[in-house]
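[Q] Does anyone have a clean structure-token version of this?
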Amino acid sequence: MTLSTPAKREHPRDSAKSARRVAYAALAGTAMEWYDYYLFGLAAALVFNRLYFTTLDPRAASLAAFATFGVGFVARPLGAILFGSIGDRIGRRPALLLSVTLIGAATVCMGLLPDFAAIGVAAPVFLVLLRLVQGVAVGGEWSGAMTIAVEHAPAEQRSKLAALVQLSSPIATLLSSGAFTLVLLLPEESFDAWGWRLPFIAALPMLVIALIMRAKIEESPEFSRIAAAGTRPRVPLIELFRRAPGRLGIAILVSMLGVGGFYFMNTFLVNFGANERGIDRQIMVNAMLIAAVVQAFVTIWSGRLATRFGPGRVTLWGGLATTAVAFPVFWLVDTQHPLAAVAALSLGLSAVILAYGVAGSALAGLFPTELRYSGVSLGYNLAAVVGGFLPLAAQASLGWSGGGSWGPALLFATFGLATAVGGALAHRVLPRE
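[A] Here you go.
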């Protein structure tokens, strides 16, 4: 059976104003979701290696912490299958409400989890289990928010509104990094004892706000139409592999850099600068805050570029830009100068975000309505299985590169090339806006 992606049409009942309101609601919930997820990345670099893996030497403890970080990405395809089925069979809205509840509850529990000194080996075990819950929830969150925002949007505004939802990433980075910046002002004993837990516990009121906003989102008009027509697939996963395996492969390549590159920057590079190059950890967190502001502007810009040139082409540019800056980013960190660290994070993250900012519209355009939630979820989260372990691989590369920065830089450049290929392929098959 030949796959046919339906042409994009404007829905008369969805004005630009109402579509933007849906996008803002999707943005708010996804920002909370990414805040929870990013907290774990920062804590893996700054806390978990010391408090939950204390029987290991420092470098081995960092490896263990990053491995725990990567476990969440292994669970994400399971979440993609689960929430993709819910989203394509029952509705986008129920899937979004469930996903945000799961990750919020898991994050609060992390903030209350006793450390290794208190309960021994049970501490890292429970930490891994909670990370798995986070991974399952995120497996359906971003894709669902992006799908419902795109399906409410007029055709000519899809890339812009998809990029608007992508602002959830820099907002979450600012919130999570800002929270850690504040608690790092505490004396080290207080930070280790209870200070680091406060950002995790703060996820509770954020969850309440996100649920209120999510509850006001109307169901996607495109999903409502196929539900009324009775054309929903019985088993979306099977239909996806039967009808769109090639497009699923393109979706994985398009997503590789956005997933792996972002966590490479805000998790591995923060740890590398602080623990391998001796830059003060507060400086590295502050550098991430500044980079997040830059990220917000690049995200908006990428959406505008995609409206003019197409999301596939912009994805290609972002991948090539990342490959070009991969080694200079590490040369800057190697100088051990605080301003160079800020420049490194801003430069590397900007290149990644040029591709990531348009990932939502690129992925949504690859799949027909009846398979869109499953296709976007699975493509994005299969890429996450590989990308999520990029910080771990980069940490391990320090061994075979003799502690030199060329090993992780090479890995970073490779991810850029993979997404550049995906962008070139996507540009050939995506419908023109």
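[Q] Thanks! Anything notable?
[A] Residues 1-14 have pLDDT under 50 and may be disordered.
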